[in-house]
């Protein structure tokens, strides 16, 4: 793996980031989980992306175990939306939402060269394209993570500019990702096991924002990993 | 270092004459006079415009006042970019004063971050310093500081106190003598012609042979389009704090002396106008 040679410094290089994402996306395609790679034109950079549509009801956002989560492709299939239409152009009057709002969550996994870790960028809007506020986003955070997030100023959700798109997104600040990932990487190395950084990291960070990984990612992406 | 401190002061006290005008379609009870202000280059729009807000709110009804935002010739101005960077990038080729339009309605959600309070600016500022230190010292210097030192950096910026700020910031500008410079240089290169907001990559200040990297080395590696090849006609200006440094300037020196208070070297690449 492309880690710094120093034992105490297990940073993620950008090439390894891209390779890990590639392997992650391969499995995502295999199980229809909706992650894709978005390239930046005229560069060798890009980011991993997933769009989720979630129902919102009077009690806040429904969590995956209680309500069907549909990715964008499934959504189009279910409501017979033509592929050529942008989501924003869908005629919502033809959709029976049973009085509940549909919220479009967009997740990006972007490499930070400063911290040499992946960063989870996300934003959400309603069916009319109105962006959700920070307070509304906060509702989507799992209850048991809120306390942890509120403990430290570095670990909260903030609005920031997406470094590749220049648009407002929310992020979980990456400054402690390395600290959290080091024991996992060390443990895997000592056990002579492969670990896909993105899978391990997203398994840990994703649930904060209602982004849960099927368990099959662990075995599938580890098997593909190069040593 | 005495001469270099003069450079630090000149950068810190850089000012931009600015005229704030209320957007013509804002609803007012009477005509709103323009508001003139010398803006500090190194600070942030939303941090230094309380008087502007109060000035225009006097002629408006409470129900017509939303979050204040700024625009220059149709471009919303990102408050989280330092003021000097915004001017260099968008307005440096136009006549002074800088004409900024003030809005209170129709906040452009897809272009601008919200700025509900000064604590949001502080969080952004400290986050930038922390990121810069991650590049320079693996975050060790900023993490070993006490909270009161972080606070002093912020208060120095907020209150425009050069000595207060640099009493702490000088620690962030140090490096072991044997290494000859920072681990990586915190820089961002901006150009309006690109959809991407800025270019940021890892770049070391010293070559493998121990020679200092220069500004042109940085540009050739990261933004080759910005430097003319083979003596061709110059197409772009490379601007930091409103000036064009010689391309032979060592990037380590630039990082120590021409960085903004967030410890980043914000470099604008501006097409040369043909007027």
Automatic annotation (TrEMBL), chain A:
One of its GO terms (biological process) is autophagy of mitochondrion. Keywords: Autophagy, Transferase, Ubl conjugation pathway. Pfam families: Autophagy_act_C. GO terms for molecular function: Atg12 conjugating enzyme activity. It comes from the Eukaryota. The keyword Transferase applies. GO terms for cellular component: cytosol. Belongs to the ATG10 family. PANTHER family: UBIQUITIN-LIKE-CONJUGATING ENZYME ATG10 (PTHR14957). This is Ubiquitin-like-conjugating enzyme ATG10. It comes from Erpetoichthys calabaricus (Rope fish).
UniProtKB/TrEMBL annotation, chain B:
Keywords: Acetylation, Apoptosis, Autophagy, Cytoplasm, Immunity, Isopeptide bond, Membrane, Ubl conjugation. It is a peripheral membrane protein. The keyword Membrane applies. Its main location: cytoplasm. It is found in: Cytoplasm; Preautophagosomal structure membrane. It comes from the Eukaryota. Residues 184-269 form the Autophagy protein ATG5 UblB domain. The keyword Transport does not apply. GO terms for cellular component: Atg12-Atg5-Atg16 complex; autophagosome; mitochondria-associated endoplasmic reticulum membrane contact site; phagophore; phagophore assembly site membrane. Residues 120-174 form the Autophagy protein ATG5 alpha-helical bundle region domain. Residues 11-104 form the Autophagy protein ATG5 UblA domain. One of its GO terms (biological process) is immune system process. One of its GO terms (molecular function) is Atg8-family ligase activity. InterPro entries: Atg5, ATG5_HBR, Atg5_HR, ATG5_UblA, Atg5_UblA_dom_sf, ATG5_UblB. May play an important role in the apoptotic process, possibly within the modified cytoskeleton. Its expression is a relatively late event in the apoptotic process, occurring downstream of caspase activity. Plays a crucial role in IFN-gamma-induced autophagic cell death by interacting with FADD. PANTHER family: AUTOPHAGY PROTEIN 5 (PTHR13040). Belongs to the ATG5 family. Forms a conjugate with ATG12. Part of the minor complex composed of 4 sets of ATG12-ATG5 and ATG16L1 (400 kDa); this complex interacts with ATG3 leading to disruption of ATG7 interaction and promotion of ATG8-like proteins lipidation. Forms an 800-kDa complex composed of ATG12-ATG5 and ATG16L2. The ATG12-ATG5 conjugate interacts with RAB33A; this interaction is bridged by ATG16L1 and promotes ATG12-ATG5-ATG16L1 complex recruitment to phagophores. Interacts with TECPR1; the interaction is direct and does not take place when ATG16L1 is associated with the ATG5-ATG12 conjugate. This is Autophagy protein 5. It comes from Erpetoichthys calabaricus (Rope fish). The lineage of its organism: Eukaryota, Metazoa, Chordata, Craniata, Vertebrata. The gene is ATG5.
């Amino acid at each position: 793996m492309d880690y710094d040679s120093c034992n105490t410094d297990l940073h993620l290089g950008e090439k390894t980031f891209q390779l890990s994402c590639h392997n992650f996306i391969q499995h995502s395609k295999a199980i229809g989980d909706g992650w894709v790679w978005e390239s930046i034109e005229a560069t060798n950079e890009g980011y991993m992306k997933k769009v989720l549509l979630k129902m919102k009801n009077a009690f806040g956002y429904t969590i995956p175990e209680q309500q069907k989560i549909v990715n964008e492709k499934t959504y189009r299939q279910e409501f017979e939306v033509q592929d050529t239409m942008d989501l924003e152009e869908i005629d919502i009057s033809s959709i029976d939402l049973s009085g509940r709002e549909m919220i479009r969550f967009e997740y990006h996994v972007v490499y930070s060269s400063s911290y040499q870790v992946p960063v989870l960028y996300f934003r959400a809007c309603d069916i009319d394209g109105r962006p959700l506020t920070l307070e509304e986003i906060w509702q989507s955070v799992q209850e048991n993570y809120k306390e942890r997030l509120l403990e430290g100023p570095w670990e909260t959700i903030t609005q920031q500019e997406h470094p590749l798109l220049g648009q407002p997104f929310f992020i979980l600040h990456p400054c402690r990702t390395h600290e959290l990932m080091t024991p996992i990487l060390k443990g895997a190395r000592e056990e002579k096991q492969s670990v896909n950084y993105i899978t391990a990291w997203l398994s840990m960070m994703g649930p904060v924002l209602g982004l849960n990984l099927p368990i099959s990612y662990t075995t599938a992406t580890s098997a593909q990993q190069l040593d | 270092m005495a001469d270099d401190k003069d450079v630090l002061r000149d950068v810190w006290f850089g000012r931009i004459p600015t005229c704030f005008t209320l957007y013509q379609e804002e609803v007012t009870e009477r005509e709103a006079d323009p508001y003139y202000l010398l803006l500090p280059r190194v600070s942030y729009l939303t941090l230094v415009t309380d008087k502007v807000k109060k000035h225009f709110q006097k002629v408006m009804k409470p129900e017509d006042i939303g979050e204040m935002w700024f625009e220059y010739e149709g471009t919303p101005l990102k408050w989280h970019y330092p003021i000097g960077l915004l001017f260099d990038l968008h307005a440096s080729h136009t006549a002074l004063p800088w004409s900024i339009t003030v809005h209170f309605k129709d906040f452009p959600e897809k272009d601008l971050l919200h700025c509900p309070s000064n604590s949001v600016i502080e969080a952004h500022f400290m986050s930038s310093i922390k990121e810069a230190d991650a590049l320079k010292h693996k975050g060790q210097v900023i993490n070993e500081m006490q909270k009161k030192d972080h606070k002093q950096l912020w208060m120095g910026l907020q209150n425009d106190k050069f000595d207060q700020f640099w009493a702490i910031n000088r620690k962030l500008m140090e490096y072991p003598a044997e290494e000859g410079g920072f681990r990586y240089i915190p820089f961002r290169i901006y150009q309006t012609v690109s959809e991407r907001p800025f270019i940021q990559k890892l770049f070391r200040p010293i070559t493998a042979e121990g020679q200092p990297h220069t500004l042109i080395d940085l540009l050739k590696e990261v933004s080759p389009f910005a430097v003319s090849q083979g003596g061709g006609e110059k197409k772009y200006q490379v601007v930091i704090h409103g000036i064009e440094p010689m391309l032979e300037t060592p990037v380590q020196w630039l990082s120590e002396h021409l960085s903004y208070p967030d410890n980043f070297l914000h470099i604008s690449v501006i097409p040369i106008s043909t007027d």
